[in-house]
Specification:
single chain; mainly alpha; Nucleotidyltransferase, domain 5; two-stranded antiparallel sheet; 5 helices; globular; Carbohydrate kinase FGGY C-terminal domain-containing protein; transferase
């Protein structure tokens, strides 16, 4: 099974499980996603990934949800560090492989509590960005013909915000308990 099919299967299964529920939040399983350490906001290159509160009743969807939330919480921590440092952030766009999932994009928008833009070529973001920079270096225009009017805006899910913020606080407490943090 390729990764694209697997990602769609998880998206479908999580949406199906949540049908009729008012909130994204739920379950106790949590993930700190620091597979290669963490640079912002913790400046801890030795931080490691963890899976916590795993119970016998937890299944693959609980773990998948915990991974998605953990990465979203880490992104929100980075966002907070940047804004607290005075960095002006007018818009936020989701690009790269994760941009294929509107479910995950909306989860990130909800955790950050800001709209998230999904450009038309978002899944190609990193490769397209490199190509555009190469184009500019060779004398071409930086911006191509991709129309900005095709951009999708993912709004935060206000009904899920409180539950996710509570889980984010647990995420932060879990990091604080890690050795060396």
């Amino acid at each position: 099974m390729d990764r694209r099919h697997s990602r769609r299967r998880v998206d479908w299964a999580v949406r199906r499980r949540d049908r009729g529920r008012k909130s994204f939040a739920g379950g106790d399983t949590g993930v700190l996603p620091y597979l290669g350490g963490e640079r912002t906001p913790h400046d801890d290159p030795l931080a490691s990934a963890t899976l916590s509160n795993l119970r016998a009743a937890a299944g693959p969807l609980h773990i998948a949800r915990a991974v998605l939330e953990g990465v979203a919480f880490a992104m929100a921590d980075c966002h907070d560090a940047l804004t607290e440092a005075g960095a002006p952030i007018d818009t936020i766009a989701l690009v790269g492989g994760g941009a294929r999932s509107r479910f995950w994009g909306r989860l990130i928008a909800t955790v950050i509590d800001r709209p998230l833009l999904l450009p038309p070529l978002a899944p190609l973001g990193p490769a397209l960005g490199a190509a555009l920079l190469a184009r500019q270096a060779s004398g071409g225009a930086l911006i191509g013909e991709a129309a900005s009017n095709a951009t999708i805006t993912l709004e935060p899910d206000t009904a899920s915000c409180a539950g996710l913020q509570a889980r984010r606080e647990i995420f932060r407490q879990h990091y604080a308990k890690m050795p060396g943090s």
